[in-house]
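The protein record quoted for completeness.
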Amino acid sequence: MPYRYAIIGNPVSHSKSPAIHREFAREMGLSISYEHLLSPLDGFNQTVAAFRSAGRLPAAGANVTVPFKINAFNYATELTARALRGGAVNTLKFDGANILGDNTDGVGLYADIERNLAFKIAGARVLVMGAGGAVRGVLGNLWDASPALLAITNRTFIKAEDIAKQFNDAKSSSAGAGDSKEKIRVMALKELPAQQFDLIINATSASLAESLPLVPVASFAPGALAYDMMYGKGQTPFLMLASSAGARTADGLGMLVEQAAESFYVWHGLRPSTMPVLAMLRAQLAKI
């Protein structure tokens, strides 16, 4: 029996998730329905409930994008370890009254950076810009990759402090004797020019508004990788700035495909191929 899935967000019409999951399903010989679902900013729970109760086919799961990843965390009745670690959910799986909340963002980002882009995070100086649900979902995987420095910055400093404290407290309670890893650092925007980074990840919403996050050119180390979680035709203002600084650039399309593959596995227990889908989307964007 075919099952229904959706990507829930605001905005959401730009999302490539329906095309990705339909292609994964075609590869795996499955029949699914997958749609965009725009939720009012104050109506996430009602939107999910309506999706689950509507339609002839049963609703089996949903992906969640900005700005609802923390809402999804609170909505779930059961949480995976990686969802608990970040306090955010991007994947919901429905099973009767049970609602499993998971987060595949970190897996997707790591796979894209390490495998697709062949950039080694171990020993690198990493800066993450932003303090929303997307950041919560990826910090754990970045930390596990053993960077020399992992720093977070945000225009609203206290939000970055809250996220770093949550992760650092969790690491302190689980660290074994002799664990000498430096904690995640919180850096004010004014501190950035004094520190160079090998990997700078833009996880703010600035690119959605085609604006530039507050990162100085001096922050890009020679040979740095600038990674924008947003994607679309052409370079975002952040990536254009990084290019002017001599950095290598990448958008978040690869992360989108890789995290979708992990969500697909959560729902179906099958791991689809990602590179053909990524190539298909790149070709489509080039024609826009």
In short: The first helix runs from residue 17 to 28.
